[in-house]
Amino acid sequence: MAKYEKKGELSYTLGTTLTFELLLRKAEVAKRIYVNPKQKRDETYTKLVHLAEANHVPVITNNQKIFSLSEKENTMVIGEFEKFTCKRMPQGNHVVLVHPSNMGNLGTIFRSCAAFNIDYLAIISPAADCFDPKCVRSSMGAIFSVPFAYFSSFEEYLALAGQRHLYPFMLQTENALKNVKKEKPYSLIFGNEATGLDSSFLNVGTPIKIEQSSKVDSLNLDNAVSIGIYSFLD
Amino acid sequence: MAKYEKKGELSYTLGTTLTFELLLRKAEVAKRIYVNPKQKRDETYTKLVHLAEANHVPVITNNQKIFSLSEKENTMVIGEFEKFTCKRMPQGNHVVLVHPSNMGNLGTIFRSCAAFNIDYLAIISPAADCFDPKCVRSSMGAIFSVPFAYFSSFEEYLALAGQRHLYPFMLQTENALKNVKKEKPYSLIFGNEATGLDSSFLNVGTPIKIEQSSKVDSLNLDNAVSIGIYSFLD
Prior knowledge:
2 copies of one chain form a homodimer. The first copy, chain A, is of the alpha/beta class. Chain A is built from 6 helices and 9 strands; from the N terminus they run E-H-E-H-E-E-E-H-E-H-E-H-E-E-H. In chain A, helix 3 (about 105-115) runs parallel beside helix 6. The longest helix of chain A has 13 residues, at about 105-115. The interface of A and B includes residues 25 and 213 of A.
């Protein structure tokens, strides 16, 4: 029986929409499409099967076991894919997440990166597993369109990242996001949900603070990242 | 045994930090503080007890039952409070959520509203229950600092909202957020996570679109709201 394993080589798209995203954006890693025998043979189904066939991805309709992957009883379609990573770091604008721990946040950050054409997402371990089906789902498939890779340290990322402008987001600085000069190519750097970036990042590039009231300790990570990315658009 | 009920009059802060927020920002609705017998009698505990006493809120240390409320076995402190609402709508800048369905999103939206000094959050039913302990937690206590109320329709809200500039966020318009003239006082209006605002909102005030790539259908709701609020700051 298929079950998601963090250390395994496979992961899954749970649901029809997500499986379409897999086939449309990253068909080369798709291995199999499982269809619940209860799935109606409607237009959506026909489209999915055609798309899978066009990409030489087998569609299996007589296997119920894999549906134990899904918490929702009524999941009709599951895509199985090989985990992948971006081997060559693109130039352009990056987001760097240092030890993100929440899978939901990580997924929605992928979504915002895709929405605003971020070229690359670097994730510094230890970090949440972006291949966990929960994260794949919360990314709404954006994991298939934003190039990304994991690094064992920020230094390892930096050694490969080339000449660029570094902007760590942290509350320990007085440089307001609104006022800071925004230069390209950039890397916007964000810390862990609970602890943020440690003070050593005050010596990295141009630290930035999102101006906020004293009513909160901080913003939710995905909101801080979204505001940061959006503010750096032309 | 205490158990959260949507139709009941009570809700709960699960955890020490959240319970501090309750006592610091909204002590008048706090009814009781329950302390797990395993809680150490440390400095945090002493502060909590003093704060509760100063606000005439009883602290109960010999009751384990209420801890069945919490999914986390190790919750040390739970605050019990009466549900509340803001009786008089303040002027100033509002966020209006039309049928938000996700409790996590609703909580992080409270957090962003508090961070950026939004004066009022209007929630149009049917909608997620902001008093659910999951939402209270994801708000990180911001539910205690942002005035809010539920309305049965957008029209009901509008009838009470007075003269103001209305900005519905929707993808069916071509007015880009970056370019639109931002006037105060304003109401930033957002639709449901899955369906957005219906096209009737094209006739309400100045519709706005957050410019985004075709790689995604939309942003996650809390990210759209956060970008919207931040962009409307001076």
